[in-house]
Amino acid sequence: MNSKERLYQDVLALTSLTPARNYMNMDSLNEAAAYIRTELEKLDCQVKEQPYEVDGRTYKNIIAYFDGNSAEERLVVGAHYDVCGNQPGADDNASGVAGMLETARLLHQNKPALRHPIELVAYCLEEPPFFASEDMGSAFHARSLHKQGVKVKAMVCYEMIGYFSDEPNSQQFPAPQLAKYYPNTGNFIVVVGKTGQEKYTEHVRDLMRQQTTVDVQSVNLPEGFGLVGLSDHRNYWKYDINAVMINDSSFLRNPHYHQTSDTIDTLNFDKMAAVVKGAYEAIIRL
Question: Which Pfam families match (predicted)?
Fold first, then answer.
């Protein structure tokens, strides 16, 4: 299979789980985690579970580790596998998990000389009611690295990378003035960072642009503005880590956001594969 086909299979596996893989449905979350772990265990990397307890339930992050030439600093690449409410979550965030898994497969397949070890993480509990709390899987992961004294060079978050539109005016903006700087057709991908991260965000954007056919944009805004802090990358900022989100702009483009209509047939897998190719090439060059 090629990247497009593998991405499709990943999204299909996650969106086919019933009931929906939200925080209440432990069997579905555990099935999702088992699928992710099984896919990662096929590769030349170290795989482990990172369990943690919230409200009497045990949730887990799944971690894959690829050794690099330097043991000093590592790169973190993550995506969350839970959904909000009772919906299939194709774009949010089976697409991101598929991107993370495909990045791992490309690392295994291409065996690039890594400048840094790469730690890929599938997180649980990104969605409400745990969003922005210390119970997010990414908060637990970031905190554990900090406590261990692990130096992290950067973090890249895959969050909603599958929805694109070629219709004019299909792209919305959190503030009207931003429309002057970005396309109004929702067929691009965005590297999102907070104010003060401009150099890093633009570096990731430029590296992606060299290796992908998808239009790659970047934006830096205050962390509480729009969708800037609305995913797992937010939990690395508190440790002064450069962390960005690769995103299709979420609810600013995708009308199926957090709806039962967020299904696999709404995604563009050709563009998803192109996004992951660009992101992978950026990650190994950071």
Answer: Peptidase_M28
State how far the Cα of 125 lies from the Cα of 232, in Å rounded to an integer: 10
102: closest CA among 60, 29, 161?
A: 161
pLDDT of residue 153: 95
Please state the domain count of the chain.
1
Domain that holds residue 144: 3-283
- Determine which helix (DSSP H) or strand (DSSP E) holds 253, and give its type and residue range: none
Amino acid at 59: Y
SS3 48: strand
Q: Please, are residues 285 and 105 in contact by the beta-carbon 8 Å criterion?
A: no
Mean residue pLDDT of the chain comes to 96
Q: Which residue has the tokens 């745990």?
A: 130
Question: In the chain, how many H helices and how many E strands?
Answer: 7, 8
Q: Which of 97, 120, 99 has the alpha carbon at shortest distance from 29?
A: 97
Question: How many whole angstroms separate alpha carbon 52 and alpha carbon 279?
Answer: 29
Per-residue tokens: 191? 């590297």
Q: Tell me the mean pLDDT in the region 10-35.
A: 98
Among positive and negative, which fits the CA dihedral 177, 180, 184, 187? negative
In the prediction, which pLDDT does 71 show? 65
The pTM of the full predicted model, rounded to 2 decimals, is 0.97
List C-alpha distances in Å: 258 to 86, 127, 137, 248: 9, 10, 19, 14
Each residue's pLDDT tens digit, 200-235: 999 999 999 999 999 999 999 999 888 899 999 999
Query: Residue 149 maps to which CATH number?
Result: 3.40.630.10
Q: How far is CA 142 from CA 32, 46, 93, 175, 260, in A?
A: 22, 19, 20, 31, 31
The residue-averaged pLDDT of 100-122 equals: 96
